[in-house]
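Per your request, structure below.
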């Protein structure tokens, strides 16, 4: 028997619950910093899995949004204060990226669904050029709602997953979920055949995906540069 766990809070709960049942995780955070494994090469214990490059590519979301809206000098970053590790890392990396690009970054918070409406009203009031939504299970679970609000308030926004773009969000950029699950499934199969998690190094998925909603871009009066159209894995129209 083995368990595949697909988000950071569940990863931590599963690890705390058992030291004997094999656990295969997928995470966009550093599994060593999370305490899931002792090291990437030698996980130890009953846990191993797949770490995507989502955390490392997060600042690129700001760069893409700036490329889509070059006249904007101020952007907003939405974080969940209850997700302290993801928020701390995401905010620090995004602020460094904003500084490199000479942009102002306004950090807004939401930890409950009721906060979303006020967040988008604040973005309009601040006249931010666009919104970067930080990673995390809470925002992922509400990605369609966030996309709908971005459309209603005419806020160009970028997130982590394709489902946000399919629901009307402007763009997404992150490590490939499909690749992560494929690699995790491979490890689960190997464990079922007798291999030990402690002997399976944490795999690092390197496939990156960019999705753009061209219909949303046109609705916002945004001309998508040809470089991004060529780079995109999928253009949704």
């Amino acid at each position: 028997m083995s368990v595949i766990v697909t988000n950071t809070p569940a990863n931590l709960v599963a690890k705390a619950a058992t030291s004997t049942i094999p656990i295969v995780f997928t995470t966009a955070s550093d599994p060593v910093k999370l305490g899931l494994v002792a090291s990437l090469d030698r996980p130890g214990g009953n846990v191993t899995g797949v770490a995507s490059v989502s955390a490392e590519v997060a600042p690129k979301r700001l760069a893409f949004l700036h490329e889509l809206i070059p006249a904007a000098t101020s952007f907003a970053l939405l974080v969940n204060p209850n997700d302290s590790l993801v928020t701390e890392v995401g905010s620090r990396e995004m602020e460094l990226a904003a500084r490199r690009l000479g942009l102002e970054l306004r950090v807004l918070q939401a930890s409950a669904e009721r906060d979303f409406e006020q967040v988008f009203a604040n973005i309009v009031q601040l006249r931010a050029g666009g919104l970067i939504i930080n990673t995390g299970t809470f925002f992922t679970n509400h990605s369609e709602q966030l996309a709908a609000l971005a459309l209603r308030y005419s806020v160009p926004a970028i997130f982590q997953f394709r489902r946000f773009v399919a629901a009307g969000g402007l763009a997404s950029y992150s490590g490939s979920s499909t690749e992560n699950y494929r690699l995790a499934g491979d490890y689960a199969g190997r464990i079922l055949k007798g291999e030990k998690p402690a002997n399976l190094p944490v795999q690092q998925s390197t496939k990156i995906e960019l999705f753009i909603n061209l219909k949303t871009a046109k609705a916002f009066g945004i001309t998508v540069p040809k470089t991004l159209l060529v780079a995109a894995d999928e253009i949704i129209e």
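The first helix runs from residue 8 to 17.

Regards,
D.
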